[in-house]
UniProtKB/TrEMBL annotation:
Keyword Iron-sulfur: yes
Family membership: Belongs to the radical SAM superfamily. KamA family.
GO molecular function: 4 iron, 4 sulfur cluster binding; isomerase activity; metal ion binding
Protein name: Lysine 2,3-aminomutase
Phylogenetic classification of the source organism: Bacteria, Pseudomonadati, Thermodesulfobacteriota, Desulfuromonadia, Desulfuromonadales
Ranges of residues in domain Radical SAM core: 89-308
Organism name: Geothermobacter hydrogeniphilus
């Protein structure tokens, strides 16, 4: 059986490989890939049925990514909230530990697309150690989210050491992992990985299914192995034009996630990230979709619809408690009481 490392090495990483497989013209994609790298695992590429379908849109570069539309590359001000390179500290009680800079697949809508897959943003082992040391020296941090890049691309020994060091910090109560591995490289969820994760309870993993066609037998098995290892599973879906911006797709996605023991957690409004405007759905449409879920699926299957506020102000639900003005420019109230403008156009 082919290992997950071999699958990763066999990933599509150039427009020419896409052209060879799907009979497209690679030239319009080449300039995109200079700026935003390409990686599609053999498994995930196998889910594409036709050019332009919901799987294709998520993983194949689009010339529209070159249009920044006046949007920032770091809309959540993560770099401004980084006391050291591997740690983002936007919330008083939470820390985001960047365990790496690589993913099994490079999502075209990624909020960190400015840095993911680019060598100049690699996280060194020394920087990762600095991040852990900063968490240890900051007693108010009780909740650590390990992200990156995808932390499950670390080898087993490295992941064991990372989790062990965090568990040894007395004030760290909660460890969460953000990973799209169950979606794009389910073969990575090996028995040895699950043995490691089982040793560090309570452990939470939020994955990132966006479309029902991603819920394959392989992904079901990967999530089952994680759940049986005691990992609490949630899902964060991004609302994406041409992928999941219709009610029946979201219903099917969330119903099946519950059967997989994965709780729908967030439905994210797209971050205002440069190079992602072609995916954006208006907030009014998102509210309509969430309202449509009610009465057609158990409340456990209805994710919270949120906006991650520009400038690093944090996530807020899209409702009247936090949205003061609707329209092309939403005025939202941040958790600290300040007002933030979210421009839809």
């Amino acid at each position: 059986m082919e290992s997950w490392q071999q699958s990763l090495r066999a990933a599509i990483t150039s427009p020419q490989q896409l052209a060879d497989r799907f009979a497209i013209d690679p030239r319009p994609l080449e300039a995109v890939c200079v700026r935003y790298p390409l990686r599609i695992t053999p498994y995930y590429a196998g889910l594409i049925r036709e050019v332009g379908d919901p799987i294709w849109r998520q993983c194949v570069p689009d010339p529209a990514e070159r249009d920044d539309a006046g949007l920032p590359t770091d809309p959540l001000a993560e770099e401004a909230h980084s006391p050291v390179p591997a740690l983002v500290h936007r919330y008083p009680d939470r820390g985001l530990l960047l365990a790496g800079n690589s993913c099994a697949g490079y999502c075209r809508f990624c909020t960190r697309k400015r840095r993911i897959g680019r060598p100049e943003f690699n996280i060194s082992f020394t920087e990762l150690q600095q991040g852990i040391a900063t968490i240890a020296a900051t007693p108010q941090i009780r909740d650590v989210l390990i992200s990156g890049g995808d932390p499950l691309l670390l080898n087993d020994a490295m992941l064991q050491e990372l989790l062990g060091r965090l568990r040894a910090i007395p004030h760290v109560e909660i460890i969460r992992i953000g990973s799209r591995i169950p979606v794009v490289l389910p073969e990575r969820v090996t028995p040895s990985l699950c043995r490691i994760l089982r040793q560090h309870p309570p452990l939470y993993l939020n994955t990132h299914f966006n479309h029902p066609r991603e819920l394959t037998e392989q992904s079901w098995q990967a999530c089952a192995r994680l759940a049986e290892a005691g990992v609490v599973l949630g899902n964060q879906t991004v609302l994406l034009r041409g992928v999941n911006d219709d009610l029946e797709t979201l219903l099917e996605l969330n119903r099946n996630l519950l059967q997989m023991r994965v709780r729908p957690y967030y439905l994210h409004q797209m971050d205002l990230t440069a190079g992602t405007g072609h995916f954006r759905v208006r907030v009014e449409k998102g509210r309509e979709l969430v309202a449509g879920l009610r009465g057609r699926i158990t409340g456990m299957g209805i994710p919270q619809y949120v906006i991650d506020l520009p400038g690093g102000k944090g996530k807020v639900p899209v409702n009247g408690d936090y949205v003061e003005t609707w329209g092309d420019e939403l005025v939202l109230r941040a958790p600290d009481g300040t007002k933030v403008v979210y421009r839809q156009t």
